[in-house]
Each structure stands twice: as structure tokens, then as C-alpha cells.
Amino acid sequence: MGDVPRDRWGRYLITNGKGSAKPYTRATTVSSTLSDSFGLTKWKMRTLALGLAQRDDIYARIAASEPEDKKGLDKLCEDALEAGRSSAGANYGTALHEAVARLNRGEEVTMPAPWQADLDAYQQLVADSGLTVHPEYVEQICVLDDVKVAGTFDLLVTLPDGSLAVADLKTGQSLDFSWHEIAIQLALYAHAVDIFNPEYGFRKPMPTVRTDRALVIHLPAGKNVCSLHTVDIEQGWEAAQLALAVREWRTRKRITAPFTHHGPTIAPDVRREQLKRRVEQLRDLGHLDALAERWPAGVPGFKSDHQHTVDELVALEALVSQLEVLVGAPF
Fold first, then answer.
1. Residue 258 counted as domain residue
2. Is the model's pLDDT at 83 over the cut of 60?
């Protein structure tokens, strides 16, 4: 497959055979919606500090930068992270990931030490676990049209019981803080409807895979060990719905408006009835004379059928509110 086209935010551009390509949010973006980024943020801060300690030139350029130059400062921070070797582990993991993908496609792959031992550990795990890897379903783009989400799963495998499941290869050193995110990611893959080929723009149906369990193959780069884990993607799918709802809520507009002295928009008849009850309460508390003394000139009371205007209601509300405060009314 060719590289999938993306928009400026990195979203997949997906076609359905009709019309132009549409942006689909990445499954990994959705899966990170509910994640706690506290630990990652702290790690980045530490790595950036180490990078600045090693690169006086970056430190000097940051000191000389205008505070408003956000783009320039962002780039310098990235340089400092790189100086702190923030990407070294990721590069090793990416290289190992690519080598395993080639193995899964049936290609001959040889890696220099110590990473060849990682490949050997992976192949041994697959053999010992009785998994069948399907070369035609390695690193395929899958789509969920109803929620406009797309992602690339690593592989599909047949389990010893004959069922087909989504499997994901992870090469990070630890997954301790990633399992919730992984469960959402794999659940999205398992519920995909189609596989999309970006080179030719065509689709084919996603094979029927398990939607209760998926697999994670953990192959930490340079450790020469490989382990297999099952993931509950029924819970992952439940969390995916929550994550999608959160993302939808973030797009909502009109959740605030400028404050006005007229208060919130309430139907005049409802507003009149609420104000009438407050006046009656003040009367029942023995403050009828105080109401009469302060009542706005020319404004009819509530015993009449008069339909009070907004300005009249505003004036009465101001009067009632002041009196309630003055006498300590519990309204």
C-alpha cells in the first residue's frame, strides 16, 4: 500500500468511492482522549531539561527569543528534547516494528545485534502460542464510517481455537500506563467496517474478528524477550463511546453568552409567574408595606391581567431582589 494521504492535522483522508476524500480522526487520537498525560508531561520536562544542560546553543537561542515567537520556541523545545535523546527509544522501536512487519509479510529480514535477538524472540513466541499470522492483513488501514475514525492495525491472527483476532505489536519498554488507551485503540480496530487501500482508493470488507478480546505482543526493543497479552476490548469499546462523546462535546458552540442585566432568557409568562411567587412570599412574611413603598410608579401589580413588559419585569425583579436581601427572605 502507498502512504495514506493526510490533512494538515494528520487525519486520514478516506474515500468511499463517491465524491472527494473526507478527513477521518486517527484511532490513536481517539484512544488518547481519556488518557492521563501527567506522567508523559513530567518525562518530557525532564528530558527537555537534560537537553538544555547539554546544548548551550539551544539555551542561548531560547533566552534571545521573543516570548511571542511561539513557532520558533516550539522548534527550539523540540531540539532540546532531541538533545535529551527523547526520540532514541522511539527510533529503535520503530525500526523493530518495521522489521517485524516485514517478517509477517513473509520477507527475509536480518537485523544487527542486539535486535536480531528481538526478532528471534518474536518468532519463537508466535510459534509457541500457536498463532497464525495472515500476511495479507499486515498493517492495514481500517475505517469506521459512522464516527469518521480510521486507524492502522498491525496484524490479524488466527488463535488456536480458530477465531480471528486483532493483534498489536508494542515495542515500548513498559506498558504499565498504556493499557486503557490500548484497549480503546484495539476495540476501534475490531469494530471497523472496511479496509481501505490508499494507493488505489478502494475498499474491501473488514474480516469478522473477535470483539471481546484482542492481543498485544510486547517486544521491548533490545531486551530479547517477547510476551503475549489479551486485552478486554468489550470494555475498550465502552470507553471508546465515552471518548467519542467527549470529543463531540468539545466541538459544541454557544455554551456561553455575554452577561446582560436582563438575566437568562426565560419566557415572559414564566418569568412573571416566578416573580409573582416571590412577591407573595414577601407579603406572607409581613413585608407588604415595604413592597408598596418601593413599587415602581405606573407598573400594575400581579392581581390584574396586565401582561408585563420585559422592562417592567426587570424593574420588579430589581425591587424584589433588593427587598429579599434587606429582610433576609429565604427565596
1. no
2. yes
